[in-house]
Design a protein that fits this description.
Blueprint (H helix, E strand, L loop, with lengths): L1 H19 L6 E8 L5 E2 L4 H10 L15 E8 L2 E8 L9 H8 L2 H15 L8 E4 L8 H4 L2 E8 L4 E7 L6 H15 L6 E4 L5 E4 L8 E7 L12 E7 L6 E12 H5 L9 H11 L15 H9 L6 H63 L3 H8 L3 H5 L2
Parallel strand pairs: 1-3, 7-10, 10-12
Antiparallel strand pairs: 1-2, 3-4, 5-6, 6-7, 8-9, 11-12
Length: about 400
């Protein structure tokens, strides 16, 4: 740790030197140290503390504004050995972060354009003229869970509801949670609950709620592939269908799953529909170094690019995004570590099981060979059973 602190001091002095030279460079620090068992562990809040200290250096000679974050340094310290990895910050924010996702989908025009592209492919008769983003999140859970899942809730001009969500890791009961989300939105419509009619005498009449529901849609971005290979497709649509003739019983509940890793492997030429182009840009924008793709086909992408551009953020917004991105990196790093540890444990258990099964098979083979020899020698079958523990029927068949 002493060597790490000395190196950190040098990094901070270099950072200060860059600022004095008016270079657009600063550093974010994420630290991972090894414990006594050689496992990487994170120091609580250390990254945030160091980041805040170092941001103090990142002002120009007049001390009036912060410089743009352009470099990310991840420091791994282990005993007397230190490894520094440096990567350039992206031109666009990452939609898989909490800040990035909400920055994009809390823009009503962008959200309307995205949803209309989705409906154009699956429900061409429906066109949204206006959306209203509602405050609050459907899942009021702990901060730990909010690092994994974030959502935006909006209502259209026709009263239809959309739940748009980003999920960063698989979940055992993911489809059931989707149904729960949509059902909870449906239950809230009862509160709106009386229908007004114009009677023959031209007066308004109030009737009890008759279960008339506005449509509720779910759009679920998955920053991972479906664990089941048979279900690995970029965009999939789900609705309530009759299982033999496949007609739709009601269109109240519909939802889509979007597997972003599949779109990251696609080429621009693979995108044949407007919604494919939307998802392609959202899935790949963090690695794009110039303008977004398909801006000639969909002019709204120019506005999307401006909203998602890191340089367009205010100083406060940049700090918020940096914090969100750092949390995202830390969480994804933890998940990768857990996955690798799980694979190691699986290998060890598999090897142990294999050895045990091998010993059992070897012992059985030896018992059969012994029984055969004893039977040839004319030993009593009950004696053979007592020695080899094989069933009489198997010994008689030898």
């Amino acid at each position: 740790f002493q060597h790490f602190c000395e190196m950190l001091t040098n990094v901070m002095l270099v950072s200060q030197h860059f600022c004095e030279m008016k270079k657009s460079t600063c550093f974010l620090i994420s630290t991972f140290l090894r414990d006594a068992n050689k496992r990487y562990v994170s120091i609580p809040f250390f990254g945030e503390i160091v980041t805040n200290v170092m941001l103090g250096f990142h002002c120009d000679s007049r001390g009036k504004k912060y410089l743009q974050v352009s470099t990310l340094i991840i420091i791994f310290a282990s005993e007397n050995k230190t490894i520094i990895k440096t990567t350039a910050m992206s031109k666009y924010i990452n939609p898989a972060t909490d800040f990035g996702f909400k920055r994009i989908f809390k823009d009503e025009e962008i959200t309307r354009g995205f949803l209309n592209a989705l409906l154009k492919r699956y429900d061409p008769k429906t066109h949204i003229k206006k959306v209203a983003i509602t405050d609050g999140e459907l899942d009021e859970t702990s901060k730990a869970i909010r690092r994994v899942i974030y959502d935006v809730h909006c209502t259209t001009d026709a009263g239809e509801e959309f739940v748009i969500e980003m999920q960063n890791e698989p979940q055992e009961f993911f489809p059931e949670r989707i149904v729960y989300y949509l059902a909870r939105s449906a239950s809230r419509q009862q509160a709106k609950g009386v229908i007004r009619h114009i009677g023959e005498d031209c007066e308004k009449q109030e009737l009890p709620w008759n279960y008339h529901l506005k449509r509720i849609y779910g759009v679920f971005f998955m920053n991972f592939k479906d664990p089941d290979e048979k279900h690995q497709q970029g965009l999939s649509h789900f609705a309530l269908l009759e299982t033999e003739k496949y007609y739709q019983d009601t269109d109240v509940f519909q939802y889509w799953k979007i597997q972003m890793p599949i779109y990251r492997k696609m080429k621009e030429s693979d995108c044949t529909t407007d919604i494919d182009k939307w998802i392609y840009n959202l899935s790949n924008m963090e690695t794009m170094e110039t303008t977004l793709s398909f801006t000639n086909d969909i002019p709204l992408f120019k506005q999307l690019g401006k909203i998602a551009s890191y340089s367009e953020l205010t100083t406060d917004q940049q700090i918020q995004y940096d914090d969100s991105f750092n949390n995202y990196l830390a969480y994804m790093g933890q998940q990768e570590y857990k996955l690798k540890e799980g694979i190691k444990i699986g290998w060890k258990e598999g090897e142990a099981k294999g050895r045990a099964e091998g010993r059992a098979e070897g012992a059985r083979a030896q018992a059969i060979e012994s029984a055969r020899l004893m039977k040839q020698h004319g030993d009593d079958i009950n004696y053979i059973v007592a020695v080899t523990h094989l069933p009489i029927s198997e010994i008689e068949a030898l």
